[in-house]
Amino acid sequence: MQQMAAAAGYGHYEISAYAQPKRAACHNLNYWQFGDCFSIGVGAHPRLSFPHRIVRQSRFKQPKSYGEHIAAGSAVQEEVEIARGELGFKFMLNALRLTVDFGVNEFSERTGLPIDRVEQALDAAEAKGLLIRDHKTIAPSPLGQRRDFWLGKFSASWRLFALYSFNLFCIRA
C-alpha cells in the first residue's frame, strides 16, 4: 500500500491516511494534535479545551431532529467531559496516530499534566519498539505506525490497546 501511494505522490502522514505534499486534512491534523475544534451544524462534534479539562460534544445527526432542537434552544445531543485522569491517555492516543514526532513539552501544554504521568507507559511502549523518543520528542516507530500490526494483533472487537500509567485501557470499537 505504501509503495503504491508513494508512486502516486502520496505520503503516509497518519496511521490510516495518505495525502499529497501539503494536502493533509487540516481537520484531522488538528484533532490528532489535540487542538480545539469549533464545529456547528448537523452531526458536528466539537472539542473545546479549558484549563485542565476538555469537553466533547455531539450535535444531533438527523437534520429534522437537529432543527427541532436548535429551535428549542440547543442542538447538543451529548456533552462529555474528558476526566483529568484520562487526558494523558487521550493525548497519546491522538498524537501517536501521526507519523511525525511531537515535542515532549506539547504533552504538558495540551493536558496540563507533567510528562512523568505517562512515563511508565512510554517506557513500556519504547521497550516493545512502538515508539522512539529522546528528551525533546516522541514519535511512533515504523512498527508503531503499521495499521496492519494494530488491527491484526488484537481481536476484531478491540481496535487499540495502549498502556497508560499502571493500567491497560481498551478503546472498544
Structure report:
The chain is α+β, with helices and mostly antiparallel strands and 173 residues long. The protein folds into two domains: 2-83, no CATH class; 85-172, Arc Repressor Mutant, subunit A, CATH 1.10.10. It has helices spanning 2-7, 26-32, 63-72, 87-95, 104-111, 119-127, 142-145, 147-153, and strands spanning 11-14, 17-19, 47-50, 53-59, 76-82, 102-103, 131-133, 137-140, 158-164, 167-172. Strands 3-4-5 form a three-stranded antiparallel sheet. A three-stranded antiparallel sheet has the order 6-8-7. Strands 1-2 form a two-stranded antiparallel sheet. Strand 1 (11-14) and strand 2 (17-19) form a beta hairpin. The longest helix has 10 residues, at 63-72.
Outline the secondary-structure elements.
Elements: H1 2-7, E1 11-14, E2 17-19, H2 26-32, E3 47-50, E4 53-59, H3 63-72, E5 76-82, H4 87-95, E6 102-103, H5 104-111, H6 119-127, E7 131-133, E8 137-140, H7 142-145, H8 147-153, E9 158-164, E10 167-172
Antiparallel strand pairs: 1-2, 3-4, 4-5, 6-8, 7-8, 9-10
Number of domain modules: 2
Total DSSP helices: 8
Helix content: 25-40%
CATH topology of the largest domain: Arc Repressor Mutant, subunit A
What is the radius of gyration?
18 Å
Number of strands: 10
Q: Decide which structural class fits the backbone.
A: alpha+beta
Question: What distinguishing features does this structure have?
Answer:
173 residues, 8 helices, 10 strands, 2 domains, alpha+beta, 35% helix, disordered C terminus, 3-stranded antiparallel sheet, Arc Repressor Mutant, subunit A
